[in-house]
User: Fold this.
Amino acid sequence: MLKIQRTTDRTVIVLTISGRLDAENVSELRQSLAAEPANAVVVLDLADLVLADREVVRLLREFETRERIVLRNCPGYIRMWMAAENSERQARRSTMNRELGVWTHENSALVLIDYQKEMFEVIRSETSAELADLNVRLLARAARAFDMPVVLSTVGVKYHINGPTHASILSELPGVEPIDRTSMNAFEDRAFSDAVKSTGRKRLIFGALHTEICLTFAVVQALKEGYEAMFVADAVGGRSQSAHRTAIERLAHAGAVPNTALAVVTELFRDWASPLADKAREVIYWYFGEVTRMKADVGVSEVEKQAAKTTEHA
Assistant:
């Protein structure tokens, strides 16, 4: 439970924050600050604070940049998280502001790792297993439509540890043979590493299960080996929200570019008057139809739903 105790010291207002602060109750802290006079100096005493949600770090960081808010007795681990958040922001800015900011179908390859039944079964993070599967299929359809190279890999099939790639995903990639491995870091497998090199692309768009293991290990290794890496946050998942979110923070901190499936597709062609536009429409309207039938929490307008139906029956 979050407790906020207010005291005053002459012209300074002290809010002593104790208990658990997370995304669900952070609004209480915002309301308390909003209730204070606009010209007052407010000290937030965090000595007894338990920060349960690292997402709240961004809020504390925002508070610290305001002239009238001072953080006092901030625990060391929170300071470390705030410093990491600063580094992540700088890394993202550096990566995204290179000579060519957007990624194109001509310079990118799609890398899909370990989309297997056993992995999907234990997803417990923000994107459901069903929606993650659909988002991977969207990426696969787009890669095929845009003539992009695809590297597909599994782990432990030969040793009967896991089953093959989900049939729904494999059906979207005719002619693409999965590379089975034993290593959790896909780049430690020679066949996989050689397959990535053979694409001739230095920009790799990753999807993998789970976020905290096979996605993270592959992406950080790719960065070390000189590739640029993008990961699709709503086409992956972890065994817990904490594991998934911590991995995403690690990847962003390492310099990988976060993105989402539909945004990736639109970024790869970017122009409704381009030669790829008709193929893109077909892929996107297919997705709108599928996501509507799934009743997923993804916005689709009535016009888009009608276009999806029209495309489906064309």
